[in-house]
Amino acid sequence: MSNLLASRFATSDRLAIHDMEWLQQGMGVKTVKFDVGVGGLPPEVNWEDKAAAIAMIDNEPARSLASILIWSTDTNWDWSRHFDTVTCHLAENMIQRCNGDGRKGPRACKHTLSELAQLMARMVLYFELYELWDIYTVKGRLKFSSIEVNSSTYTNIWLTYQRHMIDDLVSMVNKIDCSIARYRKNLNFENS
């Protein structure tokens, strides 16, 4: 990954996790301290507690998004499974919305509705993770994402569903924030 692209990762305000600094601080594997809590002091919060905060997120797509945002800079970690979990969730939501709106698959296009939803979900997550929206035109985004839909058709019909996907990402971030805040509150209560 280029340095320029890497520097843009997770810079979107919509993907900002409130407790990100707390989560990232000390998340690398460290030597275990066996004397924690000696002398009546509460044990310090370590990387295991922070990893548990992520594991306790009860919504799988939100947990996957949190994992991507926290650990994807680790070059030894394969985040493709988590990326797929989030994009499948976004695509499923789009298909449900299309069904509710009576929207059929795109016309004059080789994609089925399911294929289009998956391609759009991948585009939305990728463009949001790297804050690329302002760099590409609609036509450029579609080309980059292998979406074979006319750009004006996309803007007139499918852009609404793209916006819903972004709203779904924001909703996942809200679930992450609530879950981590609840975990930290319980952790502080137990250690007091």
SSE pattern, N- to C-terminal: HHHHHHHH
Structural class: mainly alpha
Give the termini separation: 44 Å
| Rounded Rg | 20 Å
DSSP E strands, number: 0
How large is the count of helical segments?
A: 8
Core attributes:
192 residues, mainly alpha, elongated
Please characterize this protein's 3D structure.
The structure is a single chain. The chain is mainly α and 192 residues long. The chain contains eight helices and no strands. The protein has helices at residues 3-8, 20-24, 47-55, 60-71, 80-101, 113-129, 138-144, 151-191. Helix 4 (60-71) crosses helix 5 (80-101) and helix 5 (80-101) packs across helix 8. It is elongated, with a radius of gyration of 20 Å. The protein starts with a helix and ends with a helix. The mean pLDDT is 88.
Summarize the structure.
This protein has helices at 3-8, 20-24, 47-55, 60-71, 80-101, 113-129, 138-144, 151-191. It is an all-alpha fold. The protein is elongated.
How would the blueprint of this fold be written?
Blueprint: H1 3-8, H2 20-24, H3 47-55, H4 60-71, H5 80-101, H6 113-129, H7 138-144, H8 151-191
Helix pairs in contact: 4-5, 4-8, 5-6, 5-8, 6-8
